[in-house]
Amino acid sequence: MTSSLRFRAAVVSIVLLAAFLGIWHLATRSTGAVGNMSPEYAKLMGLTATQGKSAMPGPLDVGAKLWEHLRQPFYDNGPNDKGLGIQLGYSIARVGFGYLLAVIVAIPLGFLIGMSPLISRALDPFIQVLKPISPLAWMPLALYTIKDSSISAIFVIFICSVWPMLLNTAFGVAAVRKEWINVARTLEVGTVRRAFTVILPAAAPTILTGMRISIGIAWLVIVAAEMLVGGTGIGYFVWNEWNNLSITNVIIAILMIGIVGMLLDQILARFTRMVTFPE
Amino acid sequence: MTDKFISIEGIARRYPGAGGGETTIFEDLWLSMKRGEFGCVIGHSGCGKTTVLNILAGLDQPSEGAVIVDGQAIEGTSLDRAVIFQSHALLPWRTVLGNVAYAVTSKWRNWDRARVKAHAQKFIDLVGLTGSEHKRPSELSGGMKQRVGIARALSITPKIMLMDEPFSALDALTRGTLQDEVRRICLETGQTAFMITHDVDEAIYLADKIFLMTNGPGAVLAEIVENPLPKDRGRIDLHRHPLYYAVRNHIVDFLVSRSKTFAATVTDHDPRNVPVVRPGKPELVVAAEAEDSIEASWPSVARPSTSA
Ligand SMILES: Nc1ncnc2c1ncn2[C@@H]1O[C@H](COP(=O)(O)OP(=O)(O)OP(=O)(O)O)[C@@H](O)[C@H]1O
Ligand SMILES: [Mg+2]
């Protein structure tokens, strides 16, 4: 039953994809030569005007370009012409650093907040004010103080991924079932060992959920951040190709951003499943 | 004085009540037990039984008074006092073996893996869970989970076992088997045990002393019933013993009527010297027999689960 459902779902997905590609193709194909036009003018205007071809690339153009990129993902012809793989690599590295920093800060701090009502209340006003600030609003301040665009981008990733992790960790730790804590207490388990053997495993699913939300936000923000700071990265690539008026490359970059985002989410989902326990 | 292994001395527990006042759950509660004794507390829901047990365990502090165990006032929890929780409280991310081993390593920190495992295995075998060591709590039935809880409590070889309605969530058959196991283990190892129950038959089967608490708030320990049944009693033919109905009716009578009216009718109650009753004295047997009709009209209290 389930396998047949999965099979039918896959069929529907493929049909939808084919329909989408088909419509896209029809909407952007050439409509043939457009009347008579002086040859000079035609040359100036390019295919868009002469062949009735849409400025929007069709799926075949994108496919061909994509194939080109995939065959040579890591070429490097100077600052404005690098392979997609290199650009994605820069972005992933920035997200990785910023995210890791956020993990290092948010999880211990979340533990403190979750375990101590005093600290929880003391930090609450700060968190309430800082949390709703758009991560990009920090950018000028980061650029001014850090004076390095790449590190500023990492800082922005850090600041945007820290909140979901912090709040989820604090919530997960505070919500650990009283009876599990009581088991540890009756066994005279010390605070540190209790934190690692009872609170951490009990709160892990909630913490991982926060981490999964964070990685999604970090990946959303890195594109915008790189558009601002420029230089390298997939966000910069999108902006650069827009300036080159290469819509084909923009579409390919969008597709790549989606796929990498999905993969990052899947990795975190797998970790979440590993620490989830049935009750 | 020396025969008081556990001595609860004038404890009170108050919670901040509505409107700034205080609600007293109980106060001036005195209770003592000898080493190796099995005590059961019976009382209506909300009278403060769990609170007393948590204070004994060190999980909760009394607002007044103290608890002395083995000549020392208790401060917090201790590995000498194992708790079997009503909701079994197993760690769901650990296996059966892992749950018991966690307790073992907590008590003997420097034992190596093999030794911890062997020790834990011994207690898993004891409660009849051989073969289920690597299952997780979610894969176990309610009775099996409760057994793991018992194995975990016993594995640290405590001096005292504290049990909060350990079998109330189980079916009659499983409950009976576990009662047998707990009784056997307690007799074999000379455990001192303190148990809360709502099941009168369970109390008569297991307990040497039954503590009767009146209704809260302001609950008091009204009476201590000494079990007149012989030590070698069996669960199956418990109800055939000539004194069985005397004890049972006495307790049921207390639960049905006297627990409510106690505070109003008994004015000279001395909480430090709670009357000890041994139903089975001729006059009490007669008194109890006269109240058979009360029992019949309270089937939920007079649970005939052992007469199967
Ligand atoms: N945190 C708390 N704040 C205020 N009142 C409380 C709190 N915990 C317990 N109580 C009150 O203390 C009383 C005794 O509770 P306790 O859990 O000891 O009852 P119990 O005798 O074990 O009942 P049951 O048989 O239903 O388990 C109850 O009336 C309850 O309302
Ligand atoms: Mg209770």
Descriptive notes:
The complex is a heterodimer of chains A (279) and B (308). Chain A has twelve helices and no strands. By secondary structure, chain A is mostly helical. Chain A has a domain at 84-275: MetI-like (MetI-like fold, Orthogonal Bundle), CATH 1.10.3720.10. Chain B is an alpha/beta fold. Chain B has a single domain, classed as Rossmann fold. Chain B is built from nine helices and eleven strands. In chain B, strand 9 and strand 10 form a beta hairpin. In chain B, helix 2 runs parallel beside helix 4.
The overall number of domains of chain B is 1
Largest sheet of chain B: 7 strands, mixed
What is the overall pLDDT average of chain B?
Answer: 86
Strand order of the largest sheet of chain B: 6-7-8-3-9-10-11
Instruction: State the order of secondary-structure elements of chain B, H for helix, E for strand.
Output: EEEHEEEHHHEHEHEEHEHH
Radius of gyration of chain A: 25 Å
- Span between N and C termini of chain A? 27 Å
Assess the beta-strand content of chain A as a share of residues: under 5%
Count of alpha/pi helices of chain A: 12
- Count of extended strands of chain B: 11
Bound molecules: adenosine-5'-triphosphate, magnesium ion
Order of helices and strands of chain A: HHHHHHHHHHHH
